[in-house]
Amino acid sequence: MATAMSEDNIFEGEDELSSMTTEELIRGARLLDTENRILKDEVQRTTLELDATKEKIKENQEKIKLNKQLPYLVGNIVEILEMNPEEEAEEDGANVDLDSQRKGKCVVLKTSTRQTIFLPVVGLVDPDKLKPGDLVGVNKDSYLILDTLPSEYDSRVKAMEVDEKPTEDYNDIGGLEKQITELVEAIVLPMTHKESFEKLGIRPPKGVLLYGPPGTGKTLMARACAAQTNATFLKLAGPQLVQMFIGDGAKLVRDAFQLAKEKAPCIIFIDEVDAIGTKRFDSEVSGDREVQRTMLELLNQLDGFSSDDRIKVIAATNRADILDPALMRSGRLDRKIEFPHPTEDARARILQIHSRKMTVHPDVNFEELARSTDDFNGAQLKAVCVEAGMLALRRDAMELLLVILGRLQSSSTKVEGEFKEVLSSMTGRKGGRGSRDYAETPSSGGLKKGIHGTEVQQPREG
């Protein structure tokens, strides 16, 4: 159809040309030559303008490169202003303030030289991406913003980030199945299955408190939780937040939570939280007041206007009874998980976990060992396995010495009777939960029947 129409137009054009006179054809040809000449001049002018624009762009790039040479002057954004002046008639057109005619965003900048600068022209950074408090690099002469800089944090806070992912998992923890379930529900599931909580319309806990006697697996549980999630893991120690200068500890807490927001989702683990979270009391000592200020900053970060649901806090302590009620209330450390001393079945499981990579004799009865380690915690049970291996290593070294001297045949090392010997040199806890560990001494009185009827020294009471 289109081909037929074009052919009709050609025929019509031929008919029109055939009806024109010679003078009309010459006049039309001259008009076409004139239009062609005008178009060529336009192309030439556009080419010259393009070359001039390229040259100008090249000059501007060289100027930018020259101005962006390091070092920069460091500054902070104080305020971002919107400049949209109303159009007013000028009495004298010669006196026009160009800065007053600018429209858009302007910046109030404070440099590291303690100067406050107003910039009607921001610089090379998009002003829509700037916000108050941002750290920027500016030209030391014109103060134009050349680049944005990473946020400034205390070097101690940067060191708190755990770069290497922990290798522990929940299979390395024995006898704490209930505690593992509660921790996964409060910390892991809100990060991995956030939509499930939104569907139910519930808000997951912000923090978890792990409390119990020493050596019951609180820190190990936190490391396993960090290994299960892909979240950033920050490890803080309570005594580390107690600083000498006023406000220094609170600044560490603020910087830690600010770093956690930038790297969200994030888990903050505060070990020995009782160092800063004790109950408040009247004191004239400046150090006590500084510790209380640090705790107040922690309370504000947990449940303040700037709190973030993507940040989860795990706190661990041996003394939950001395913590401040404001720290323990719901909305901050919502879930409290107790870590008691392991039961007999849990002790057998812990011994099996710590001895699974050891060359253990098949006759070793872990259930009987668990009955002989009444009131041992997880750390003591691990020490039993380590000491049994050290005794086996010692005996093997003596056999190797005999091989050198007497050309005797040495047998392979197996941890067999070493568990019994270690238990003979270690004593259990006395007095129940939270009591102090007692080491065996030659003068210790009292005997207790251990594994295979061996007598184990017990400390004298009182």
From TrEMBL:
<dbReference type="GO" id="GO:0016887">
    <property type="term" value="F:ATP hydrolysis activity"/>
</dbReference>
<keyword id="KW-0547">Nucleotide-binding</keyword>
<dbReference type="Pfam" id="PF17862">
    <property type="entry name" value="AAA_lid_3"/>
</dbReference>
<dbReference type="InterPro" id="IPR003960">
    <property type="entry name" value="ATPase_AAA_CS"/>
</dbReference>
<feature type="region of interest" description="Disordered">
    <location>
        <begin position="423"/>
        <end position="462"/>
    </location>
</feature>
<dbReference type="Pfam" id="PF16450">
    <property type="entry name" value="Prot_ATP_ID_OB_C"/>
</dbReference>
<dbReference type="InterPro" id="IPR027417">
    <property type="entry name" value="P-loop_NTPase"/>
</dbReference>
<feature type="coiled-coil region">
    <location>
        <begin position="36"/>
        <end position="63"/>
    </location>
</feature>
<dbReference type="InterPro" id="IPR003959">
    <property type="entry name" value="ATPase_AAA_core"/>
</dbReference>
<dbReference type="InterPro" id="IPR003593">
    <property type="entry name" value="AAA+_ATPase"/>
</dbReference>
<keyword id="KW-0963">Cytoplasm</keyword>
<keyword id="KW-0175">Coiled coil</keyword>
<keyword id="KW-0539">Nucleus</keyword>
<dbReference type="Pfam" id="PF00004">
    <property type="entry name" value="AAA"/>
</dbReference>
<dbReference type="GO" id="GO:0005737">
    <property type="term" value="C:cytoplasm"/>
</dbReference>
<feature type="domain" description="AAA+ ATPase">
    <location>
        <begin position="204"/>
        <end position="343"/>
    </location>
</feature>
<dbReference type="GO" id="GO:0005524">
    <property type="term" value="F:ATP binding"/>
</dbReference>
<dbReference type="InterPro" id="IPR041569">
    <property type="entry name" value="AAA_lid_3"/>
</dbReference>
<dbReference type="GO" id="GO:0010498">
    <property type="term" value="P:proteasomal protein catabolic process"/>
</dbReference>
<dbReference type="GO" id="GO:0005634">
    <property type="term" value="C:nucleus"/>
</dbReference>
<dbReference type="InterPro" id="IPR032501">
    <property type="entry name" value="Prot_ATP_ID_OB_2nd"/>
</dbReference>
<dbReference type="InterPro" id="IPR050221">
    <property type="entry name" value="26S_Proteasome_ATPase"/>
</dbReference>
<dbReference type="InterPro" id="IPR012340">
    <property type="entry name" value="NA-bd_OB-fold"/>
</dbReference>
<keyword id="KW-0647">Proteasome</keyword>
<comment type="similarity">
    <text>Belongs to the AAA ATPase family.</text>
</comment>
<protein>
    <recommendedName>
        <fullName>AAA+ ATPase domain-containing protein</fullName>
    </recommendedName>
</protein>
<dbReference type="GO" id="GO:0000502">
    <property type="term" value="C:proteasome complex"/>
</dbReference>
<keyword id="KW-0067">ATP-binding</keyword>
